[in-house]
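Design job #97: recover the sequence.
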């Protein structure tokens, strides 16, 4: 178990560098978390710490209620302000191994309008299986955002939700998978915005979306890809979600 925790710390710390590499965050905004395989634990970054100061030893280990595990590396720090939201997702979506939040510019622009991103390019059909939905407005600090994420994405093929007036949250089979979704959601948010500014969008027929999604999820890539090795991240629990 200790080796699994340490590996998750290393991966989560490293993946924050991908958010800055792809220009998805500014200053200390945004976060990546990762579920510890085989345990009811996850790792998340400390609140308000510069990205260049993040390291495995200052990542914070939490249980699935979002409570910091005492006397573990990083436990003296305050965890991300989105910790309760991440914890709620992990408790209620068994297939989720990673959660990412960014303030990426174009995705936030769609969220500010409370408008879903329509599925008008094949990359969206491949990765998200349709439009990227809007979640409800929710205030940071408790599990309200997490409830909105779960409510919106459960049973939906999209691995991204645009929380209204806030920004994108993405889920994945692993932390890396969730980061990939965050990169892709900003890419398609920008492309579709620019296309709509230039003229009328052309919808992709639902049958074609379904075929593209099936091919990408089940044929593209390698058999050991993370998205095939775990339950669907968006699959609902057997128990009642809000029980």
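Job complete. Output follows.
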């Amino acid at each position: 178990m200790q080796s699994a925790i340490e590996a998750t710390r290393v991966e989560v710390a490293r993946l924050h560098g991908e958010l800055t590499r792809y220009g998805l965050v500014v200053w200390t905004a945004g976060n990546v978390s990762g579920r510890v395989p085989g345990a009811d634990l996850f790792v998340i970054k400390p609140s308000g710490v510069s990205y260049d100061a993040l390291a495995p030893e200052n990542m914070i280990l939490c249980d699935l209620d979002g409570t910091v595990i005492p006397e573990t590396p990083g436990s003296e720090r305050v965890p991300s302000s989105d910790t309760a939201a991440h914890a709620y997702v992990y408790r209620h979506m068994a297939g989720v191994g990673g959660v990412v939040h960014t303030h990426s510019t174009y995705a936030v622009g769609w969220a500010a309008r409370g408008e879903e991103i329509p599925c008008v390019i094949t990359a969206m059909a491949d990765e998200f299986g349709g439009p990227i939905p809007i979640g409800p407005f929710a205030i940071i600090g408790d599990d309200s955002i997490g409830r909105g994420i779960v409510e919106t994405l459960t049973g939906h093929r999209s691995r991204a939700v645009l929380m209204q007036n806030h920004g994108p949250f993405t889920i994945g089979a692993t932390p890396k998978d969730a980061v990939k979704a965050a990169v892709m959601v900003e890419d398609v948010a920008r492309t579709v915005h620019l296309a709509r500014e230039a003229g009328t969008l052309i919808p992709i027929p639902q049958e074609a979306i379904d075929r593209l999604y099936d091919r990408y999820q089940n044929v593209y890539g390698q058999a050991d890809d993370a998205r095939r090795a775990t339950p669907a991240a968006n699959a609902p629990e057997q128990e009642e979600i809000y029980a």
